[in-house]
Amino acid sequence: MMRFKEYIKESASQTTVLQESLHCVALGITQITNKNISEKELLDGDLFTKSYDKYCDVDVNLQPLFDFANSSPSWVTSVVNNTNTLKNSKFLKGDYTYYRSNGVMGDVYHTFKVLSHKQSIKLNPDKWNPGDVWASKIQSIPNFDNLIEYNQFISKSLKKGDLVGISLKKTKGVPKIQYIQQSSDIKNVKFKGVKKPASVFNTGISVLTDDTNKSLNIRSFRISKAANITSEIIDKSSAARHGKKTLTEYIKKYNIPQMSIQDIKKNVDNIEYMNNMIITLWKDAGYIFPKNQIDKDWDKRFKKGENLVGYYRSIVNSLQIGAFLNQNKGIANKILSDIFSEASSMGEYSSDFIKVS
Is residue 100, in this structure, part of any structural domain at all? Predict the structure, then answer.
């Protein structure tokens, strides 16, 4: 099978590329020293170079990566903590080559793209497996007839310790590590209501269901970019990843009102108008707040000079959805059923990984 050399995450910033690659170097250093790594060792030029050359295949050159390490103390602390947690876990067994985008990691995602295209499965690679870096003892990916077979290979390889996808988060203190398995256990739920917020001026809303373990977060997950409103399933009963989904199709299908980005930009400086809209929408979603709480919450929320376009898009559009669901409970049940059902079916095509957070 013809391979792509790289898998490039579409949304990866330069900092993301650097910190994920730095994890690879740190993991390689633990293989050189055969012990936990210290921040001093991560910044040791000789160890850094030896690890990079022998155990890493990443999409950033040695010198800018070493410069990043020396200028980013908070990332060095996080990387060291994450690395030691991984080294002492049951998931990494022996020595590996660590990949970011290149080599085997590129093959991993290329194989997914070939099989998902063959089966007409529309699933973002990062939703299939959000591994930021991959630890591998194998040199190439075998051929498979379908995605289910491939996912079984990913699962078996992870459990054996031969091929391990690792999702990384910036951490403070001692990180936790989780094995995230395929998510095919989500049951249908019914709309119960919009959760009362901790603050009138939250960035989004939480939708409650008749299952106390399951809820739906609705907001923009990229406020700085004024990105579209997205839902995320929260399941307190499971460590399984259920992913995020934009709500555009439901907004169009059910004619859910949404303030346009153009209107938000036009009115963004009229804070009284925008905030009154938020208060009215909360009322339509089921909640009335006293003026002293409104004033207190806004004082905590507002930062002078802040660009409020992304914030207002997130809270106003989310609340418009919440108000619609609260006033159309029959349709709300249908929408939640569709979202949870789709999450379940997509989970059947997702693959296993470990998460450090």
Answer: yes
- 169 and 195 share one domain: no
Mark which of 134, 151, 175 sits at the end of a domain.
175
Query: Is residue 9, in this structure, part of any structural domain at all?
Result: no
Does residue 52 share a domain with residue 200?
no
**DSSP 8-state code for residue 193:** E
- Look at residues 292, 96, 81 and name the one whose alpha carbon lies nearest to residue 170: 81
Q: What is the pLDDT of residues 2-47, one digit of tens each?
A: 333 455 554 468 999 999 999 999 999 999 999 999 999 999 999 9
Range of the structural domain that residue 124 is part of: 14-175
Strand order of the sheet with strand 191-194? 191-194, 205-209, 214-220, 229-235, 244-246
3-state class (DSSP) for residue 140: coil
The 177-180 sheet, strands edge to edge: 56-58, 97-100, 133-136, 163-168, 353-356, 177-180
Position 6 in a domain: no
| One domain for residues 224 and 293 | yes
- In the listed set 175, 199, 227, which residue is the last one of a domain according to the structure? 175
DSSP H helical ranges for the chain: 14-33, 39-42, 45-55, 62-71, 73-87, 103-118, 125-128, 147-160, 248-253, 261-267, 271-284, 291-301, 309-327, 329-347
Beta carbons of 39 and 152 less than 8 angstroms apart? no
What's the number of domains the chain is made of?
A: 2
For residues 354 and 261, give the distance between their C-alpha atoms in angstroms, rounded to a whole number: 37
Amino acid sitting at position 80 = V
Q: Is the pTM of this model over 0.70?
A: no
Helix axes 45-55, 14-33, angle to 10 degrees: 100
Question: Is 134 inside a domain boundary?
Answer: yes
Helix (H) or strand (E) holding 231, with range, is strand 229-235
Tens-place pLDDT, residues 167-221: 999 998 899 999 988 654 456 689 999 999 999 999 999 999 998 888 999 999 8
